[in-house]
Amino acid sequence: MRLFISTLFFLLLSFTALKADEFDKWIDVASSYEYGKFLSAEQGCQMAFESAKQEAIRKVHGEWINSNEELVCNDKSDCKYYQHIWKNINGLILGIENIKRNIESKQFSCKVSMSVLVNNSKLHPDPDFNFSALLNQRLFKDGDKIVINIDTQLNFYYLSVFAYDPDSKKQDILFNKIFPNAIDTENQCSGKITIPTFEHENDYSLIARADGMDIDVEFIVMIATQKDINFLKTYDYFEFNRALSEIPANEFRMKKLSYTVLK
């Protein structure tokens, strides 16, 4: 994806606004990004551009924040404290104008300012569109099998599930799609299901791994959508949240479960 950043930025510069109606708001925003010595100025400006778009949506629709705190100990009384904060911003951008950018080469910084047209119409909530999820356990030993249990009254929905490791050494691959997969290909679901599904429970397993650490905390992220969305197999944190931000808030639900793996 990074190979196309420069082209994408200039395409976005040419993005003009649609005519605003009574539900839309023009928001003036600015954002800076320090790209350092390992990214180009163009990439830094792209990051600032995306951050400014999120700030415009945040000003209109607010921001959903979820925090997890855990103190995890093994049988040797070795303990680790984990805190994870999850932020999600969702809204529809209809147009962008007056884009300006200022690159400070000595500071390796790019500032982007612009006017953003954000749709402010109220989405119609659907309280029946929801689900609950549990793992077969919260504490695993390295090599144990993980089973995900989904419970809902929905008759029809699409489900995608990701393994999320915030401590991954590969920061460009933090989210790995584990369902649907090459074996469990059908993600159109109804009512209660397990993952692996009943039809394929003997064909593959989800295995807990400590990745060489004595104690490791990881996450399962489940997304139920009203439409079939072809999510990528892997995401970094930025791209994953950007993909979610493009789905209307009333058309998806997300659950996040943490679990601990002992070596």
In short:
With 263 residues, the protein is mainly beta. It has helices at residues 5-13, 41-61, 237-245, and strands at 24-34, 64-73, 79-88, 93-104, 109-119, 132-135, 139-141, 145-146, 148-151, 157-164, 175-179, 188-189, 193-195, 206-207, 215-225, 234-235, 252-262. It has two domains: 2-67 and 92-119; 132-262, Macroglobulin (MG2) domain (Immunoglobulin-like, Sandwich).
- On the 0-100 scale, what is the average pLDDT? 81
Low-confidence stretches: 1-20
Strand content: 35-45%
In total, the number of domains comes to 2
CATH superfamily caption of the largest domain: Macroglobulin (MG2) domain
Number of strands: 17
Specify the oligomeric state: single chain
- Based on helices, strands and strand pairing, what is the structural class? mainly beta
The secondary-structure element order is: HEHEEEEEEEEEEEEEEEHE
Question: Level of helix content?
Answer: 10-25%
Q: What name is given to the CATH topology of the largest domain?
A: Immunoglobulin-like
Report how far the terminal alpha carbons are from each other. Answer: 35 Å
- Shape descriptor: globular
Describe the structure.
This protein has three helices and 17 strands. With 263 residues, it is mostly beta strands. The chain folds into two domains: 94 residues; 131 residues, Immunoglobulin-like (Sandwich). The strands form five sheets. Strands 7, 10, 11, 12, 15, 16 and 17 form a seven-stranded mixed sheet that branches. A three-stranded antiparallel sheet has the order 1-5-4. A hairpin with a 4-residue loop joins strand 4 and strand 5. Helix 1 crosses helix 2. It is globular. It starts with a helix and ends with a strand. 22% of the residues are buried. The N terminus is likely disordered.
